[in-house]
Amino acid sequence: MATLLGFPYPIISTSGGYFAPVRGVNAIKADLLQLLMTNPGERVMTPDFGCALRKLCFEPLDNILTEQARDIIIAALTKWEPRIAVEAINVNPDYDTSSLYINILFRDPMNIESIEQLQLELPTGGGAI
To answer: Which end of the chain has the least Cβ crowding within 10 Å, N or C?
Structure first.
């Protein structure tokens, strides 16, 4: 099986240039971040690509928001990321920082024996009304 190749996200200047390729599990993590941080409608030729996760940023932080975020992530990964086997999606609220902490555990298709992890912090609108 060929090595997975992709581009880093976010795009930053490195010694290899702005589009220095990343390989393997790092390519998958970059693609996952692109999926999770792209709102549907942002891609011109693929308007339904993305995940409505950023729309939750101004909502009050509560259990409903936590479940909404988890459901949105599951739907996006199911539709757009067939390469990985998701082991767990944990979305935990932190009321002190008014953020959701997202932890996605998945298996890399090139190394199914190890579980990889992607972590993301989503700031929210604060405490429940």
So the answer is: N
Q: Domains of the chain, with CATH numbers?
A: 5-123 (3.10.450.40)
Contacts of 86 by beta carbon, 8 Å cutoff, 6+ apart? 74, 77, 104, 105, 106
Cβ-contact 84, 114 below 8 angstroms: no
Residue 74 neighbours by CB under 8 Å, 6+ apart: 86, 89
pLDDT digits (tens, 9 = 90+) for 1-10: 444 445 555 5
Angle at the Cα of 83 from the Cα atoms of 104 and 57, rounded to 5 degrees: 40
The candidate with the shortest Cα–Cα distance to 32, out of 90, 100, 93, 80, is 80
pTM of the model: 0.81
